[in-house]
Write a structure and sequence with these properties.
Rossmann fold, 8-stranded mixed β-sheet, 8 helices
């Protein structure tokens, strides 16, 4: 079983195909794990492995990955995992793709280490639009499951962690100014529901006109077309 361990964190990951590396951040909110790709309109571990070295992972404390939880944890904690995994695999530069919460992981990784990201696919991005309570409830349900297994976790630590993740604005991990200034090639697959508001996708595209936009991608026919557009986009920027 492919596990990468560092500083008390055990990260589970899987690799598919070969070529320019593509690191995936799965949908699923705090439960972001590889299995969520298999429930998505298309699975990049299947659809893109013919052209890229696809690396999928379970985020810490999701799926088969484990790690400590501290009051200071937040988006940068996850980004440090992502960069450490790339170091472990000997990858200096890669494409990244994130669904749901993974879109914010992508933005934060670009902010932390822009030279290591050749291009990004932002699928169904999360964001704040009259829905903060929904994000808090999602976090609390995940935290309750963890607390049942790890009674040493305290409410104060979890509350601080939750605020670090979802107490901000926009896409939570980065600012509007950062998105507007970002020069990393990006393609955006629009969101359209409570956790992935259409308004957030529209604002990303408005802030940064360089971003390519895919409006329809969830039906079987639209998913096939989206995959081909993503494939061409990533090949162009590798």
């Amino acid at each position: 079983m492919p596990l990468f361990e560092r500083d008390g964190v055990s990260l589970y990951y899987e690799e598919f195909g070969s070529g320019h590396p593509l690191l995936l951040f799965a949908p699923g909110g705090m439960r972001s794990s590889i299995d969520f790709w298999r429930r998505s309109p298309f699975d990049p571990t299947v659809e893109l492995a013919s052209d890229f070295r696809v690396i999928a992972m379970d985020q810490r404390n999701a799926g088969r990955s484990r790690g400590p939880i501290r009051a200071t944890d937040g988006w940068d904690t996850y980004t440090s995992d992502h960069l450490a995994l790339l170091d472990h695999l000997g990858i200096q530069r890669c494409h990244i793709m994130g669904g749901c919460i993974g879109g914010s992981y992508c933005f934060n990784m670009i902010k932390a280490a822009p030279a290591r990201v050749s291009a990004a696919v932002i699928q169904n991005p999360i964001g704040l639009k009259d829905n903060r309570d929904a994000f808090r409830e999602m976090f609390d349900a995940w935290a309750a499951e963890l607390k049942a297994q790890r009674p040493e976790l305290t409410d104060s630590v979890l509350a601080s962690f939750r605020e670090n993740m979802y107490g901000g604005d926009f896409v939570f991990a980065v600012s509007r100014d950062f998105v507007a200034r970002c020069t990393t090639p990006m393609i955006l697959l629009n969101g359209s529901d409570l956790y992935h508001p259409a308004e957030i996708s529209a604002e990303i595209a408005r802030l940064n006109p360089r971003v390519e936009v895919v409006t329809e991608w969830k039906s079987p026919e639209a998913a096939r077309a989206a995959v081909e557009r993503i494939r061409a986009f990533l090949k162009k920027h590798q």
